[in-house]
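Hey, can you fold this one?
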Amino acid sequence: MASICFFFSIHEPFMLRNYSVFDLGQNSLYEDDERNCDRIRHLAKTAYLPAIDILHKELIRKQGDFRFAVHVSIPALELFDQYCPEVIDGLKALAETKNVEFVAGAAHSLAFLYSRKEFKRQLLSYSTLTQQMFGQKPSCFCSTELIYNNDFAAFLESMNFKVMMAEGADYILGWRSPNFVYQPETTQSIRLLVRNRNLSKDLSLRFSDRTWDKWPLTADSYAAWLGEAGKNADTINIFINMNVFGVRNTKESGIFEFLKNIPDQMIKNELTFGTPTEIAYKYPVRDSIDVRQFISWDDAGGDLNSWLGNDMQKDAVHYLYSMTDRVHKINDPELYHDFTRLQASNYLRWMSTKWFSSSIKEDSPFKNAQSAYTTYMNILADFDMRLEYAELEKEDAEKEQGYPDMNGESVTVEKGEDAALVAKQLVA
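Sure. Predicted structure:
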């Protein structure tokens, strides 16, 4: 009997305002508060609140027979906390059932590619937040857009994670099926769950497509497909964004009725439910997988080109992460906060010129990639100015700490004085 691993990812970025060159040094208000409020409340009403409510009711009704996993990014948690705390309450209710695993992540950033120290900071912060908010210490990790390679898995293993998720790309799996537990090539203990790409896309991309030869998709038909696949499988991993319910597929499409009915239909087809960590250690490792280049679940190519495919994106991401060591050295909570928010991968994705991918366009507030790039670079320039000012303040504060004179007394160096000259005079 195969297990079904449903994983729902929730991420929403802060919308940036039209920050121009004339704002540099004048204000550091990077986000469009009104737009963020309206957008998050709309998304909560049309997607997240009804989906969470249905999932919670099914968890209560099934009494342990229905189980799944959720990941909520740091930006999404902050947005819900600020504009729609009812979503946070709903997520806490899911956690209280003890049948939902909360999966770790970072700031929906590309930090791992550019600074392991910054990535580790974000991951530890997220793990602490998950423990405080949902009462769980995460043991499974899901990266931004399922970005994955061997090095990533090895790093997560060094941080004592037990399970990592990845995209089930055909060119990576080769002859293997996505419906088994694997181990990354370069690790000793961490286990790998790969997404069943086709069955996941039936919900995320095809459910509302009237030209699809399987439309309309019903819960009993979908469960029958999974039941058939489960005859030669250990686990079927359905990894999707939770906004599939209500945004990508509207209420009128029947997606919420589908969600209500799917647990019963799965059980009728002799399928069980499990969370990622449970499933990863319920079944044996069937093989190792060698992934040397980065992959993702990006619809346009399964690579990183939607974030790093053109010169604008590369320029922006290098400017962003060039400030990492300076931010760490200053160690200022407000700068850390803004630096973390500015790393959301959406800001790079909005600069993509791969406009054939509809998922790139759907949430961008900018009319084109150039506008997204200009705004983001202006924001980074202002942040750089703030960082430079903080560095000068810290330098001045260190100069004021004073030097001991020949009698052991402290001599204070005033702002503007040459510290080296004072020290020389003391020795003389």
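The chain has a mean pLDDT of 92. Let me know if you want another pass with a different chain boundary.
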